[in-house]
Design goal:
By secondary structure, this protein is α+β, with helices and mostly antiparallel strands. The protein contains 11 helices and 6 strands.
C-alpha cells in the first residue's frame, strides 16, 4: 500500500479497498470493549499489522479520526483502545448515562461521584497509572466507604473554615457533593431484601456495571457488594481524566494512605472518629 501522510491522505494510488476495510475492521474491534486480541486471531493480526506497518497504522488512525474517535493505544495488551470525542456519534456522555439510570437530578450527580471515586480508588497514585503491569481492585462497599469517609473529611474542612452551610445549587467542587451523599442511605432494602437502586451502594453498583459493560472493569466475585479488577482499557481512560480538578481534589484529601508500595487502602486509626464502614471489603491494589 502507499504511504499515508500525517493528515491521513494517501501519497500515492496504492491504498486498496481491502486496506481501508482492514483499517475499519480494526477500529470496529476497538468499539467492542469486551473483545480482546488474545482471544481473537483476526484482531491480534490487525494489531500486529498496525505496529509493524506504519502506513497501515496511519490509515487506521485516519479512519478513527473520521469517526470522531481518539486513539489512546494500540497494543496486544490494550487492543485498539479508543475514546469518543465530544462530537462523535459514539460518545456516551456522563449526563446521557446518568439520565438513563436516574430521573432525579441528585441521583445523576451521585452517579458522577461514584465514577470519580471508583477511578480514584483503582489508581490512587501517579505511578499506578504509569505502570502498565498494575491492576487495581475495587469493591462496591469499598467505594461507598471511601466516599463516606471523604464526605466526613470535607465536612470537617467546612466546619473549620466556618463554611458549613448549604451552598448554592451551582456551587462547584466536592464541597457541595458531600451534603448530597451523606443524606442518602447506604443500602436500604426492598421487601425482598434487594439493594435499593437509589441507595448509594445501588448507585455505585450501576456505575461499576456500566464500567464492566464498557470493558473497563472485570467482575471477580460477589463479596462486599461485588468485587472488580481493572483492565488496560480502564487504565488508559483514567490516565486521560487524571488531570481533572475533581479527581485531584478527591485524591488531595489523603484518604488512600500508601506506605511500602503495595498501595493498600486501610481503615482509619482507632483514635480517628471517622472510621470506615464495617465489612466494607476495602479494595486492594497489586500486580497479578
Amino acid at each position: 500500500m502507499s504511504e499515508i501522510r500525517e493528515d491521513g491522505s494517501a501519497a500515492g494510488p496504492g491504498v486498496t479497498a481491502g486496506d481501508v476495510a482492514d483499517a475499519a475492521r480494526l477500529v470496529g474491534f476497538g468499539l467492542q470493549p469486551k473483545v480482546v486480541p488474545a482471544r481473537d486471531a483476526e484482531y491480534a493480526e490487525l494489531i500486529r499489522r498496525h505496529q509493524e506497518d506504519p502506513p497501515f497504522g496511519r490509515l487506521v488512525d485516519a479512519v478513527a479520526a473520521g469517526l470522531g474517535l481518539i486513539v489512546l493505544e494500540v497494543s496486544p495488551r490494550a487492543g485498539m483502545a479508543v475514546a469518543a470525542g465530544e462530537d462523535s456519534v459514539f460518545a456516551v456522555r456522563m449526563g446521557d448515562y446518568a439520565r438513563r439510570t436516574a430521573s432525579d437530578t441528585g441521583d445523576r450527580f451521585l452517579h458522577g461521584l461514584a465514577h470519580l471515586a471508583a477511578a480514584a480508588l483503582a489508581f490512587p497514585r501517579p505511578e499506578d497509572l504509569a505502570d502498565d503491569g498494575y491492576i487495581g481492585r475495587i469493591t462496591v462497599h469499598g467505594v461507598d466507604a471511601f466516599v463516606r469517609q471523604a464526605c466526613r473529611r470535607l465536612e470537617e474542612h467546612a466546619d473549620e473554615s466556618g463554611e458549613n452551610t448549604d451552598p448554592a445549587s451551582d456551587a462547584p467542587g466536592l464541597e457541595a457533593a458531600w451534603r448530597v451523599y451523606v443524606r442518602r442511605s447506604a443500602t436500604g432494602a426492598t421487601k425482598d431484601a434487594r439493594r435499593l437502586a437509589s441507595s448509594t451502594t445501588g448507585i455505585i453498583g450501576k456505575a461499576v456495571a456500566f464500567l464492566v459493560d464498557s470493558g473497563f472493569l472485570q467482575r471477580t466475585g460477589d463479596e462486599s457488594g461485588g468485587t472488580y479488577r481493572t483492565t488496560a482499557r480502564y487504565q488508559l481512560q483514567v490516565r486521560d481524566m487524571a488531570g481533572s480538578a475533581a479527581m485531584a481534589e478527591l485524591l488531595d484529601l489523603g484518604l488512600v494512605p500508601v506506605g511500602d508500595g503495595t498501595a493498600t487502602l486501610v481503615p482509619a486509626a482507632a483514635t480517628d472518629e471517622s472510621e470506615l464502614a464495617a465489612d466494607a471489603g476495602l479494595p486492594f491494589h497489586a500486580r497479578p
